[in-house]
Amino acid sequence: MVRTALLLLLVVTAPAAAVLPAEQLADPVKEARARAISRDLRCVQCQNQSIDDSDAPIAHDLRVILRERISAGATDAEAQDYIVRRYGSYVLLKPPLEAATLPLWLGPAAIVGLGAVAAFVTIARRRETTPTPLTPAETARVDTLLDP
Amino acid sequence: MKRLIFIVPLVVLAGVIVAFAAGLQRDPSILPSQLLNRPLPVFAKASVQPGQPGFGSTALRGQPALLNVWASWCGACKVEHPELMALSSAGVPIYGLVWKDTAPAAAQVLDTSGNPYRATADDADGRIGIDLGVTGAPETFVVDARGRVRYKQVGPITPEVWATTLSPLLARLRAEA
Predict the structure, then answer these.
(1) Could you tell me which residues come within 8 angstroms of residue A141 by beta carbon, excluding any fewer than 6 positions away?
(2) Which of A1, A52, A122, B152 is most exposed, with the fewest beta carbons within 10 Å of its own?
(3) Closest C-alpha to B134, from B13, B6, B40
């Protein structure tokens, strides 16, 4: 009973966001867009939180700026780009595919590929090796072992 | 050939260890400035001191100068303050952007511990700081004679930072101008 109640509690409690009521936009659609963008933007002060989660003053400022952009009619991409232009693609929690992040995106596939090539080569080589015929002495020893 | 199979993983492991050891020496809180080799964003603000002139982005032209982002609430700014005073009396032009602070609190710091700045600008809402890509105070931008950002120092200017990084850079920029 207690366990069920605790589990239920875990299910219904959502992690608290740092967004204050005063920051929110009156239009629920625009507010939802702002929330979605801010969840993907890294707080530059507490770097493993999004600006949606962070209580840092600068995260607050960035949330407000994001909402100002959206109120001014910016698209999601434009609003996000406004902050990326100032702080760099580092603030994107999902790193974009660009020259500096190529190893990040292609590295794992390249390592798996290299492993696959190595495995194929090893297996192919193992198949190719034909066993050398037994010497007469070995044949005699096998016979004595098999026919006691 | 057979031996190579055993050596290659060891070489890769050694490479990974070197890369990780180098990575651990790096401070991940220091982000590269997006403004590098680009002009300062345009701004102009009043001073935090009543009756004193403020400054704008155009003030940092004509000769290499430092743009120091600070606030009265910032502890590390107090640490670098004596160094800024020393640089200022040595003739280094320093401009102070007062970031996310109140003008009276900042003015009081200047009155009590000295004013190393040619002029101050009051960025109370922190918007100029965000245009500059500031992540915290203090940060100092080295601006060349054409008004372009050439370097960003994150954290206080210690005598070591001055001697090893900023002083040689300013000398180079002066020669360039």
Answers:
(1) none
(2) A1
(3) B40
Q: Shortest Cα distance from B67 to chain A (angstroms)?
A: 17
Question: Which tokens belong to B98?
Answer: 């007062």
- pLDDT tens digit sequence for A57-87: 999 999 999 999 999 999 999 999 999 999 9
Q: CA-to-CA distance for B98 and B116, rounded, in angstroms?
A: 13
Rounded to two decimals, the ipTM of the complex is 0.79
d(CA B44, CA B123) in angstroms, rounded, equals 10
pTM summary value: 0.77
Contacting A with CB below 8 Å, chain B residues are 28-29, 31-32, 34, 100, 125-127, 130-133, 135-136
**Domain boundaries B34-176, corresponding CATH code:** 3.40.30.10
Q: Within 13 Å and on the Cβ side, how many CA atoms surround A58?
A: 23
Domain boundaries, chain A: 14-96, 100-146
Residues of A with Cβ-Cβ distance to B28 under 8 angstroms: 47
Domain ranges of chain B: 34-176
CA distance A29 to chain B (A): 26
What element of type H or E holds A11?
Answer: helix A2-12
Beta-carbon separation of A87 and B28 below 8 A: no
Cβ pair A44:B126 closer than 8 A = no
Backbone angles phi, psi at B149, to 5 degrees: -75, 130
Per-residue model confidence as pLDDT tens digits over B121-141: 999 999 999 999 999 889 999
- CATH domain A14-96 topology: Helicase, Ruva Protein; domain 3 (1.10.8)
